[in-house]
Amino acid sequence: MSAMDLSSAAFPVNTPKFWGDEKELVANCIETGWISSEGPAVKKFEAKLASKCGRRHAIACANGTAALDIAVKALQLGKGDEVILPSFCIISVITQVVRGGSVPVLVDSDSTFNMDVAQIRERLTPRTKAIICVHTYHFPVDMEPVLALVKERGIKVIEDAAEMIGQTCLGRPCGSFGDISTMSFYPNKHITTGEGGMVLCDAPDLAERCQQLRNLCFDPKKRRFVHEELGWNYRMTNLQAALGLGQLSHLEEAVSRKREIGRLYTKLLEGCPGLILPPDKNQKSESNIYWVYGVEVAPSVSCDADAVMKRLAAAKVGTRPFFWPMHEQPVFEPMGFFKGVEWKGGQSFPVAERIARRGFYIPSGLALEDHEVEEVARRIRKVMEEIVSADGGYSK
Ligand SMILES: Cc1ncc(COP(=O)(O)O)c(C=O)c1O
């Protein structure tokens, strides 16, 4: 968008970026006729991403939700097993846990919006079979205590790295921590294939199992179309993988641009009344990746995030609310997972409840240019000044 037409411009919450070389790679699929999941780009994309994450195997699939479904099923999480996960996450994380008959056991969030790993130990029982770690918005989960715990107890880890492609934790790439790790390539992710996902692991038997689950549980040892088990058609097309290959070769640039956008927002919004901005580093000095630029409406402001987002929509600034906690999801209410359960430390999720109501994120797409970030920040500051002054002024 040119600098001239910005005053009337609308800013969507996401604008994906294409680097140029994707076009030829996708055109090549059409020219050669390789468009389905059988095409060569799928294997290339898998190999390239596996190597980026230091994993032995990568299994491309239809989306990040599908990747999580495959992970849960491949680790044989089933009836009666307990799976610890954050309440504050996207519903994709819990879907197959519940469908497969396992019991979701929730932990609250910490100040980084990630799961509060200190609560995990309190939730352990002899039935605990896995922990799902979901790196959320800005920083990786504090993996060190999680890894120590699972080693001690022999439980499995699923790492959802959908939002942290290109992020590091303990000096290692996100996507390298889980018995199975997963990713999404939705257009708001650091690399996109339109829709798409990846399962990453090291164990060859797990990789084979994930490949089967992705492809209807066809069994290579059996006559075609004879099945011992039910799987899904969660395959990725060659067209998507070709796009992914083009995107993946620019991952470092994408991550560094995200950080530039994030830091520019912070510079421009510093001191903005009524808004709490995300820090650039966490307590372990890991850098915010700014997958999105997530903010909180300060407690002293009378209205919540919904009201602020409405005002920003009127100013043509696109936003998204934060996730809604799993323990407050209507769909789970009749299932009774989160009622009457007395964990040590109580059954309450004050942080998840607060950030769900006070948090939202602002235009964060990779294609945003600096002058657009400046205009968005100007409009946000104006809206917040109006809100806070209608509140009768305010001090943080
Ligand atoms: C952390 C996380 N996990 C899983 C998903 C689901 O991915 P998909 O939309 O590709 O199914 C998302 C989507 O945004 C996500 O943010």
From TrEMBL:
<dbReference type="GO" id="GO:0008483">
    <property type="term" value="F:transaminase activity"/>
</dbReference>
<keyword id="KW-0032">Aminotransferase</keyword>
<dbReference type="Pfam" id="PF01041">
    <property type="entry name" value="DegT_DnrJ_EryC1"/>
</dbReference>
<keyword id="KW-0808">Transferase</keyword>
<dbReference type="GO" id="GO:0030170">
    <property type="term" value="F:pyridoxal phosphate binding"/>
</dbReference>
<dbReference type="InterPro" id="IPR000653">
    <property type="entry name" value="DegT/StrS_aminotransferase"/>
</dbReference>
<dbReference type="GO" id="GO:0000271">
    <property type="term" value="P:polysaccharide biosynthetic process"/>
</dbReference>
<dbReference type="InterPro" id="IPR015424">
    <property type="entry name" value="PyrdxlP-dep_Trfase"/>
</dbReference>
<dbReference type="InterPro" id="IPR015422">
    <property type="entry name" value="PyrdxlP-dep_Trfase_small"/>
</dbReference>
<protein>
    <submittedName>
        <fullName>Aminotransferase DegT</fullName>
    </submittedName>
</protein>
<dbReference type="InterPro" id="IPR015421">
    <property type="entry name" value="PyrdxlP-dep_Trfase_major"/>
</dbReference>
